[in-house]
Every structure is written in C-alpha cells, then in structure tokens.
Amino acid sequence: MIDKKQLLTTFLPIAVLQAETTDAAEAVPQQQLFDGMVCIRRLPFRIGRESRVKKVNGRIERIERPKLDDREPNNDLYLVDRGHLLNISREHLLIEVDGESFYLVDRGSACGTKVNGEPVGGEDQGGRSILKDGDIITIGTMESPYRFRFLDLRGFMIATSDH
C-alpha cells in the first residue's frame, strides 16, 4: 500500500527560495524555477556556481550538465553567474536544519553571503548564520544581483488524515 503521508513529504517543499531580482531568476535552471521560486525538498540544500558555460551571442549560457555516473553532484542548485566579476563560488553555501532552526552555512566562498545585509563568510573563511522565514539571502558581495527570499513552509504543511 502506498504511504500517502510519505509521498507528501517527498514532493512538497519544506522551504523555498524566491528570486528577488531578474538576475537571480535568470541564474536558476528553468527546470528548477517555478513561478520565480526554487523548491527545497531535502536538506542540506547546496548551492554553487555552474562552471559549465559558454558564450552565445555575447551572453553566458549553461551547457547541459552530464550525469555523474553514480556520484552525487556537489550542489542541488547550480546558478549561472553572468556578471563580469564573479559573485558565486562553485561550492558557495548550503541551507541546513539543526533542531527546529534553519541555518545558512557559507562553504568557504570568496565573496561571502549576506543574510539581511549581514555578512556570513567570505574570503574563503566560511561561516554560519541562523535563517528565518522572510530573510533575504544575497549570494556574493552587497552589490550582487543574486538575491533570494527564504520562505519556511514547515508550519503550512497540508493536514492529512490516516484514511
């Protein structure tokens, strides 16, 4: 028999990242973007720069990422950094849960990450910050256009019966 509660926990996101800028939305692979949002279904959720790109008509475009045999990818979300100066590191940050709280962990990125304008990591140092519903995550420098709003959906799960 199919466990419908388990299906819900598999398919429903526990959190989302809502693109706050056009550049942020354009950096996300289209198959992972739904109405300007990226679903987070499992943790930790790793984010980094897509390094497999090429120039097409003056624009940086993603090259299809080949399957990695049986190896896990380094990131759950690969963002294309189209800036002249790179803001996003290949292994930039992750979102994890510890107890009841979400945390943003900078994975030793060069430009760091900001949570509501407060620096986390940078200069290859790494760092960790609590992450709350509605927080704005800036990936890279303060001038970076890659801004996302973090939305915690755990309290809004659909109530189900045992029938």
TrEMBL record:
Superkingdom, taxonomy of origin: Bacteria
InterPro entries tied to this protein: FHA_dom, SMAD_FHA_dom_sf
Residues in FHA domain copies: 45-120
Name used for this protein in its record: FHA domain-containing protein
Species of origin: Desulfofustis glycolicus DSM 9705
High-level lineage: Bacteria, Pseudomonadati, Thermodesulfobacteriota, Desulfobulbia, Desulfobulbales
